[in-house]
Amino acid sequence: MGKVLSRFQNGFPGAVSRSVDDIVISMRNANGGDIPFGTPVFMVDGENACRGFNVDTSTGDNFVGFAVRIADKTPDEYGSSAGSYAPGDPVDVLVRGSLVINAETAAAAPGAGVYIRKSDGKIVTVAGAEGTTLRLPGVTVRTVRDENKAIEVVLTRRNLI
Length: 161
What we know:
By secondary structure, the protein is mainly beta. Helices cover 2% and strands 40% of the residues.
């Protein structure tokens, strides 16, 4: 038998949440470490490759999109936050559309900006003090955070690609 949910959850990190307007591209993981599902992806200079957040090289100018959860790594089988792209693997990157990510801050309201806290690489929805967060261009919050720290975000425009 199935389960009855007492509250509708936003979803699992990296899951495309609305498929009408989404654009997903594939890029090679440039050996900068694993890229977990639902995390920001940045272009590597001079290559058609990407990497996860790096405090020294990641900027709003080289932000591409978010790593998309792939079907063979489902939440039921691997857990709600499990799954990532290994170095050298092709990475599915959402460059326009909506998807679910984890956010550390609960103060998000629809339309708010999305930021990366530079000290630990976590996603937040409130800008920190000058120079402590990186604003992800063209990304806004669509839903408030659920009990699993999941929010839906919208990439309103393509970045770079």
